[in-house]
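Trying the structure run again after the queue cleared.
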Amino acid sequence: MMENAVDGRDVMSRFSLEGKVAVITGASSGLGVAHAVAMAQAGADVAIGARRVDRLQETVDRIKAGGRGVVAVRTDVTRIEDCNALVDAAMSSFGRVDVLVNNAGTGGEYHAATEDPPEHFLATVDVNLNGSYWMAQACGRVMQPGSSVINVSSVMAVTTARMPAAAYSASKAAILGLTRDLAAQWGSKGIRVNAILPGVFPSEQTAHYSENYKRKVIDARIPLGRIGDPADIAATAVFLAGDASAYITGVSLPVDGGVLLL
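Done. Tokens:
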């Protein structure tokens, strides 16, 4: 039986990421920035990746201003060599990888199922599902017991917004299966794997929503009465990253203000 590595510790210390190293993909904008900054604020050094490497600099500056170590690498998660390079950079800079936040993803476009171009469906799955797997593979090869993989799915994996989003919904639902399988495979190695299911959060996809439309969405779908703040989901990721969640694995955790209640 694996020994509990956190026995005897003060409960608040379990929420600290001091001494840990976190890898975050899609860290050039939106929730990826929130995840990277939150991990650093909790005490972790971070390795961040995104396709738009020029936009990573702002994230780097925020993390450095907080006194944490950071390395940034251009990363297209659909390219296995890029995923390996990001992990290699983390290992070279910090000597370990303790946390992966598989945040990189695409909302794709809205197409009726009978008109959805094959290249759109394949590209969406390539980023959202395949990219998450390649990153998990790369991190899983170097992670030690006590490490945590956090896959970012969506409430669209288990419900519908009544929009033609088959590619997005299918790819995010597949993340839940991936999470369960990796959790089962890697439990004996002491690596936990969980998924978070964001509801409606500010993003490049929602930036064009009018205030009137956002209010209609809130009134119809969100019992807590507001769109999520990036800090809401970043704090959840910090919880799943550290020893506070040491006995949680294979879980799919909605962070949605109650969307799935309705």
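The two ends are 41 Å apart (CA to CA). Worth checking whether this holds up in the mutant runs.
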